[in-house]
Write a structure and sequence with these properties.
This protein has 124 residues and is mostly helical. The chain has 3 helices and no strands. It binds zinc ion (ZN).
Amino acid sequence: MPTALGRGLLGRCPACGHSHIFNGFLRVVPACSNCGAPLGAARADDAPPYFTIAITGHIVIPGMLVLEQMKSPPLWVHAVIWIPLTLVLCLGLLRPIKGATVGLMLKLGMMKTEDEAEPDAPLP
Ligand SMILES: [Zn+2]
């Protein structure tokens, strides 16, 4: 489990660790080019943004409150510090967290099966 999570965090195939898991910023490749692991069948959905927002919020909000309590700076100081930090943290954490989520799902066998309907498919 830690190996799959670590490989996913680094953007590598959670199964073999040799090929890239992403084709683009967040698009997961359908299958590993080295070992054939069905990476595209791991539908992470909203989990990576949820974890990213939770982690970022637990860093930014306490920092903002501590700075306000200690120094009471003007609002523009808060804006200059916390808005860029929030953007950097969100963009920097989203991809590794998605990789780790895909690794976790692959390890736990939480993969989409072929008989599951596509979410965008029209209802019969
Ligand atoms: Zn692989």
